[in-house]
Amino acid sequence: MKKLNLIISSLLLLFVFASCSTSKEARTLKKSVVGNWQLKSITTEGITGKIKAQVLDEADFNCFIGSTWRFDKYNNLGYYEISKNGGECVAVKRNIRWSIFDENGSPKILQYKRVDAKYKDIDEGKAGFRFNILQLTVNSMQVKSDINFEGKPASFIYNFVRI
Questions:
Q1: How crowded is residue 80: how many other Cβ atoms within 10 Å of its Cβ?
Q2: pLDDT in tens, 12-40
Q3: pLDDT above 70 as % of the chain
Q4: Domain ranges (residues) in the chain
Q5: How does 99-116 read in b/e, with b if 16+ C-beta sit within 10 Å?
Q6: What is the DSSP letter of 23?
Q7: Kind plus residue range of the DSSP H or E element containing 15
Q8: Are 111 and 121 in contact (CB under 8 A)?
Q9: Which of 38, 43, 58 minimizes the C-alpha distance to 134?
Q10: From CA 108, how far away is CA 136, in angstroms rounded?
Q11: Cα separation of 162 and 33, whole Å?
Q12: Apex 116 CA angle, 79 and 134, nearest 5
């Protein structure tokens, strides 16, 4: 009986570890994301005309244009930094914890949470921020976040270049 319990326990542990493992595609995407990036532009889908909107619970989306982002390899930490832009934008450097979310049959997702200097979540109770990865090459990355704008579905598309 003890032997049977040991076998069942071992199989359960194996199942838990296998279900938590990351796919080869997600590991490859993670390696491709690692490094330094600059946000060159943000385009919209489903929104017409000029808009003023806060994104990522931080600042107006125009403040993010030119921001620098770092995704570290070993600890899934990093940061983004917004430069001061006249009276419109406040300089911010925000630590993040990031990962690639990989669910079978779904688009791959770049996700992050904002963290403080001790790497504790600062947006407790929130899921963080998720972006569908539309395109990822050695020198460019395009990700998309779906939003609700004036009661209608819309999207922001973030266009990054490696620096």
A1: 21
A2: 433 433 344 457 777 888 888 999 999 99
A3: 86
A4: 23-162
A5: bbbbeeeeebbbebbbbe
A6: P
A7: helix 2-20
A8: no
A9: 43
A10: 11
A11: 9
A12: 35
- Calpha distance 23→61 (Å, rounded): 32
The predicted model scores a pTM of 0.80
| C-alpha–C-alpha distance, residues 102 and 35, integer Å | 20
Find the length of the chain: 163
126 token code pair: 């929130």
At which residue do the structure tokens 């990865």 appear? Answer: 133
Domain 23-162 part of CATH 2.60.40.1120: no
Q: What percentage of the chain carries pLDDT values higher than 90?
A: 52
Sign of CA dihedral 41, 47, 51, 54: negative
**Gap between the Cα atoms of 134 and 48, Å rounded:** 22
**Nearest-angstrom CA–CA distance, 82 and 85:** 9
Cα separation values, 4 from 7, 13, 63, 144, Å = 5, 14, 61, 49
C-alpha closest to that of 36 among 67, 82, 75: 67
DSSP state of 65: T
